[in-house]
UniProtKB/TrEMBL annotation:
Keywords: Membrane, Transmembrane, Transmembrane helix. Coiled coil: none annotated. It is a multi-pass membrane protein. The keyword Repeat does not apply. It is found in: Cell membrane. Gene3D superfamilies: MFS general substrate transporter like domains. The chain crosses the membrane at residues 20-44, 56-75, 87-107, 113-134, 146-165, 180-202, 238-257, 263-282, 294-318, 324-351, 363-383, 389-408. The keyword Isomerase does not apply. Residues 20-411 form the Major facilitator superfamily (MFS) profile domain. It comes from Actinokineospora diospyrosa. It comes from the Bacteria. This is Arabinose efflux permease, MFS family.
Length: 411
């Protein structure tokens, strides 16, 4: 009888985890399409409105800044009420921002555009926070794989979204809207549907259930999960994610502008960004397995090396070479994936359940600010010294991951 008790206790948790992951996967497929919209045409929309490349990075900066504020709010709501309301509200806010971008484009109003892009950033923050929900009920030994399952789901929508830039542009023109507003029609619908899926079906709430299972533990003896622990706490994991986000956003933001300056159209830029987003999320199952099998530190080092290679290739690729730019952006996405999965696992390992959601939200703020800084600086750098210098500098900056990794001290 005694031996059956652990299995009986484990079964409801395993069943709940499967349901949580299923719902998160559906929501992430939808939100991936919304996420890709701003990446593909946000910089081009600002460039056309303002007539300047120097401010082409501003849309990504504002969207990322908005995601920083949203990360705080989502973290606090999740901490107080659970993942379900936090994530649903975040996606709904992203849908409202998408509608604002469409209105701004129709009115050719840059001020409204920038405000709407700031609100639109909530969708990005929510998409990233969802990975933590996948890890709440996961066994520590399989935490990397749980995170990767949520991430890979974004691939389907993320790859489809940029490739729908041209068709949705035609649809926008047909209804009297500017062509570049078309993908934001897609993103608004996608984010709204993701919010609905989470609000209705994310039950049980993974964070609340994980806390409820921890309640029988003595308050004087906090529950300690098995798995790796670090005396250095979550800071190294946060630094890894900050650096990978900054490098990735800076190069990614200016690649469509760089391609446009060399005569490529929206379809070519959309293809390259689709490959990039696919590389960001599609390798996640393998990355999760590698993180669980070979350790968080190994994959973090791999992130720095891969991002360096991406920067070198992007810097040396001829402007008219779509294949080489696509390869550079694929490596850029892969390096980001390595950094995100390993960094997320380090943070989740290091933070107790009682403060997990709030701490994760705070860390994601830093990640979002890094992305905003990269997006803002990228336009200025390209306008001043060119895209190749930006790409090479970002690749070299990625090597700063190595000192962060060296600071990790296992217990």
């Amino acid at each position: 009888m005694t031996s059956a008790t652990p299995a009986a206790a484990a079964s409801p948790r395993a069943s709940a985890q499967r349901r949580v992951l299923t719902v998160l996967v559906v929501a992430q497929i939808l939100s991936g399409a919304g996420l890709a919209a701003g990446v593909t045409v946000g910089a081009l929309l600002a460039q056309h409105m303002l007539g300047s490349t120097n401010l082409a990075g501003l849309p990504t900066t504002l969207a990322t800044a908005g995601s920083a504020l949203a990360a705080i709010s989502i973290g606090r709501v999740s901490h107080a009420r659970g993942r379900r309301p936090g994530l649903a509200i975040g996606y709904l806010t992203g849908a409202i921002g998408s509608a604002g971008v469409i209105i701004a484009a129709a009115l050719s109003n840059p001020v409204l555009l920038f405000i709407a892009l700031f609100v639109y950033g909530a969708g990005t923050a929510t998409n990233m926070q969802a990975r933590y929900a996948g890890a709440d009920l996961a066994d520590p030994a399989h935490r990397g794989r749980a995170v990767s399952t949520v991430l890979v789901a974004t691939t389907l929508g993320g790859v489809a979204g940029p490739n729908l830039a041209a068709p949705t542009g035609h649809l926008a023109l047909a209804v009297g809207l500017p062509e570049l507003a078309g993908v934001f029609m897609l993103s608004g619908i996608a984010y709204a549907l993701a919010a609905l899926v989470l609000a209705v079906w994310l039950r049980p709430d993974p964070l609340l259930l994980a806390r409820a299972e921890a309640l029988p533990e003595s308050a004087a003896q906090p529950r300690t999960e098995p798995g790796p622990r670090y005396r250095s706490g979550p800071l190294p994991g946060a630094l890894i994610m900050v650096l990978t986000q900054l490098v990735m956003v800076a190069i990614m933001t200016m690649t469509p502008v760089h391609m446009s300056d060399h005569g490529h159209g929206t379809a070519a830029a959309g293809l390259v960004i689709a490959i990039h987003i696919g590389a960001m999320y599609l390798p996640s199952p393998l990355t999760g397995w590698l993180v669980d099998r070979y350790g968080r530190i190994t994959l973090a080092v791999g992130a720095g090396a891969t991002l360096l290679a991406a920067g070198i290739i992007a810097a040396t690729a001829p402007g008219d070479s779509v294949p080489l730019l696509a390869l550079a952006l694929a490596l850029l996405g892969l390096g980001w994936n390595f950094g995100l999965v390993s960094g997320t696992a380090i943070i989740t390992d290091a933070v107790p359940l009682a403060t997990r959601a709030k701490t994760q939200g705070t860390i994601d703020v830093s990640v979002a600010i890094a992305g905003a800084s990269g997006g803002l600086a990228s336009g200025v750098v390209v306008g001043t010294v060119g895209y190749p210098v930006l790409a090479l500098a970002c690749g070299i900056l990625a090597l700063a991951i190595l000192p962060a990794v060296a600071a990790i001290k296992p217990n």
